[in-house]
Amino acid sequence: MKIVAVNYHIYKPCNLRCRFCFATFRDVRESLAVDDAFRLLRLLRDAGCKKLTFAGGEPTLHPRFGEILAEARRLGFVTCVITNGARLANILDGQASDLDWLGFSIDSAREEAQAALGRGSGAYVQKVLALVDEARRRGVRIKLNTVVTRLTWEEDMSELVRRAYSDGRDGSFRSDATAQSGVTWTGA
Length: 188
Ligand code: SF4
Hints:
The protein contains six helices and five strands.
């Protein structure tokens, strides 16, 4: 069996503390050295892998992520990064051409729900949408990754999705809009 797509959890640390996070990797002590990461990429390419998705933790926090992403591009992979946007602006500035896809982690259109889930302190949705706009301007394809929780399972996120795939210029979307209100947080 050929493995054509691989998720590479490149970096364990993360700037957020999502309550549902499974990416604790307690058995992983550190990241691969860059030379070893390059070697891994070559091995994957030689084994027939076509698509590489960088995940974490938060991959954009990896101190040498740009070099590894560039190497993935050089080797001909379709590239994707799953991100909460931490240091994505820098990557988009210098290396948008090395990116095919960005997967944005976003679980609600409501800032208070995102904050309750552990994603920042109240401006997460707006930050992600600004990065989505920037990515689309630079020709990077986007997708949204959503964890459904007890806090959000009844929420209609269609307006948020429409906003993400438009340029947002009509101003109709408000991230504090209560797509579903009255749900009490009791845990993920
Ligand atoms: S952003 Fe992702 S890796 Fe970071 S804490 Fe949240 S779920 Fe975990």
